Amino acid sequence: MRSLFGEIKNCVKPNALVQSDDHSVYNSVVRTYLPQSTHQQFIGGRGCSTGQGELKRLRFDPIFTLNHNFAMLRDGIGKLIRRHGGRRNVQMP
User: Fold this and answer.
1) Who's near 38: CB < 8 A, 6+ residues apart?
2) What is the C-alpha separation between 77 and 67, in angstroms, rounded?
3) Rounded Cα distance, 3 and 89, in Å
4) Domain boundaries along the sequence of the chain
5) To which H or E segment does residue 76 belong?
6) Helix (H) or strand (E) holding 49
7) Distance from the CA of 61 to the CA of which of 39, 78, 85, 89 falls in 20 to 30 A?
């Protein structure tokens, strides 16, 4: 994450608004690489099961959608690999 902030610090406006969940590392990284920015942290909402297999969101979490989409992508890729046995469909000469 530090390498990412090192690369983007020249592309982000100095007074940018940075929003993240409440992980303790994020505040120090933002202060180091973007010292003039405003950093807002939100308490991440843990999902709770409602009995029908879906998750009910309890609080606003700015990266919930991103995490959920990547989890769905990983799951779909895993199913494809298991379905095809990890083989390639194209024969290499």
Assistant:
1) 15, 16, 17, 18
2) 15
3) 37
4) 2-44+55-82
5) helix 64-84
6) strand 48-49
7) 78
